């Protein structure tokens, strides 16, 4: 595609769809179950789970969330448009607050979104660092794993848990499924959704079920 602004002309290409995932931290099985139910309702997608595994790389979260935290990764089984996907970080922040019982209360679940593409594993964050790019709405992005030599591999700034062979292996195992979805998408037999379909009306896109993250389980 060619775009032009005045006398400035550039060649650009549309990014391929990606798979959204959430890095999940908690020491409460009940809270994790509630969070998973909410994510499945909001995104109307099934989840492929990595973990739980012990999260002992840092005690950064212990003061807020307590000890003995477990790491999970929830990979959503459906293609998403990467355009403006960083806004998922705003959504998960609201879900964290709702699960905690209101803004300002200590979190009981940490939900960090990112995406998986054929080229990289990317994370969204509110914290600026030299290796991160500003995406808008107070959100930055970083490429935390990069695919080369037939594997997702860590780089200098990769978080310790994402460096682990087990988590990198999980993403490697899911890569053929992403390739298959992309092939179906190019052939017109697989859909790609965008974040505005999720955020548009506070409902589950495709099922019309209203979402109240603070509501108890039935």
Automatic annotation (TrEMBL):
<dbReference type="InterPro" id="IPR025529">
    <property type="entry name" value="DUF4416"/>
</dbReference>
<dbReference type="Pfam" id="PF14385">
    <property type="entry name" value="DUF4416"/>
</dbReference>
<protein>
    <recommendedName>
        <fullName>DUF4416 domain-containing protein</fullName>
    </recommendedName>
</protein>
């Amino acid at each position: 595609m060619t775009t032009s602004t005045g006398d400035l002309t550039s060649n650009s290409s549309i990014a391929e769809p990606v798979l959204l995932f959430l890095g999940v931290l908690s020491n409460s099985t009940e809270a994790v179950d509630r969070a998973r139910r909410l994510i499945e309702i909001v995104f109307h997608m099934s989840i492929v789970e990595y973990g739980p595994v012990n999260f002992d790389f840092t005690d950064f979260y212990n003061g807020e969330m307590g000890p003995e935290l477990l790491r999970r990764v929830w990979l959503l089984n459906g293609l998403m448009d990467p355009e403006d996907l960083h806004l998922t970080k705003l959504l998960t922040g609201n879900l964290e607050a709702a699960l905690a019982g209101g803004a300002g209360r200590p979190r009981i679940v940490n939900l960090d979104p990112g995406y998986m593409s054929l080229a990289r594993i990317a994370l969204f964050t509110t914290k600026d660092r030299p290796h991160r790019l500003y995406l808008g709405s107070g959100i930055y992005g970083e490429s935390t794993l990069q695919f080369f030599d037939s594997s997702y591999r860590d780089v200098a700034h990769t978080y310790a848990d994402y460096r682990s062979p087990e988590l990198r292996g999980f993403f490697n195992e899911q890569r053929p499924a992403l390739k298959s979805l992309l092939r179906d998408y190019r052939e017109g037999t697989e859909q790609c959704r965008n974040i505005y379909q999720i955020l548009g009306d506070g409902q589950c896109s495709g099922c019309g079920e209203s979402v109240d993250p603070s509501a108890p389980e039935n």
